[in-house]
Amino acid sequence: MKNPLPGSTWFFVDESGDLTFYDRKGNLIVGQAGCSPILVLGFIETQDPHAIRRAVLELQHEIIHDPYFEGVPSLSKTAVAFHAKDDLPEIRYRFFKLIASLDFRAQFIVARKIERVFRNNFQAKETAFYDLLVSHLFRDIMHRYEHNFIYFAKRGSRTRQVPLSEAIRRGIKRFEQRWGTKVNTTFTVQAQTPKGEPCLSVIDYMNWAVYRAFTRGEMRYYRFVEDKVSLLVDLYDREKYPNNWYSRKNRFDITKITPL
User: Fold this and answer.
1) Burial class of 34 by CB neighbour count within 10 A (0 to 12, 13 to 18, 19+)
2) Burial category of 111 from C-beta neighbours within 10 Å (exposed 0-12, middle 13-18, buried 19 and up)
């Protein structure tokens, strides 16, 4: 295996959907109102996060001072950070246009919320389910650069740097065992909010595009930014294996998947 490239790379990680399988009474509610049928975990990777931060903040400043948007209630949220679910369609369009011009690549793990898998593989533990996705997401990429800086979007008061670091280490170990090699790189994991880290708004939008494709069959948002996507794995679409690994050679389209 080649030596890692000198220097650093940055990853910005977020999710779309939720980890919930059951209501308070233990009833399965996956796919019902308020409970997503899938969980999308993705990252953008860049060697120049400063350029992305600058571009995002410049657009944000331009929008919140644009008289066209004056008096729009949701603008108060956009003034904190771009968020695809909350932003106006006009703002969403402008942010997608910006994303298409930025220098990064993206990867995604899409996990169908299958109760049998959740119980048998993870003993119905949400954190175990999530951490496996983290391990998969980072398994094959941590050997490329000497230093890796990983920023996870912070959710509420959850502080999970240690478990997430352990999940990434498990992914590295699997890579080493698979290829009979040693990964001699470093990584750090930090939690941050989109307000504090503008790059997280980019992965929020990318995740949203993937989520809309899977749950609503809307490909237009994904199509607009698909050149940024180097890998998308529909992890539990076993019927399509190995073609459930989508790349630039096997481009993702919603018509290729087993319906949810």
Assistant:
1) exposed
2) buried
Inform me whether the pLDDT recorded for 205 exceeds 60. Answer: yes
pLDDT in tens, 144-159: 999 999 999 986 555 5
Cβ distance 81 to 87 under 8 Å?
Answer: no
Of 239, 171, 210, the closest CA to residue 38 belongs to 210
Confidence (pTM)? 0.94
CB 113 within 8 A of CB 30: yes
The encoded tokens of residue 68 equal 């066209």
Q: Considering only CA atoms, which of 19, 29, 7 is closest in space to residue 129?
A: 19
Distance CA 144, CA 131 (A): 22
The identity of residue 238, as a single letter, is R
Give the CA dihedral 78, 80, 82, 86, nearest 10 degrees: -50
Instruction: Locate the domains of the chain by residue range.
Output: 16-135+195-247
Q: Which residues fall within 8 angstroms of residue 72, CB to CB, at 6 or more apart?
A: 88
Q: Which residues pair with 247 in a beta bridge?
A: 231
**Phi, psi for 62 (deg, rounded to 5):** -65, -45
With contact defined as beta carbons under 8 Å apart, do 106 and 206 qualify? yes
Instruction: Pinpoint the alpha helices (H) of the chain.
Output: 49-64, 75-78, 89-101, 115-122, 126-138, 161-179, 199-216, 220-225
Structure tokens at 256: 């290729």
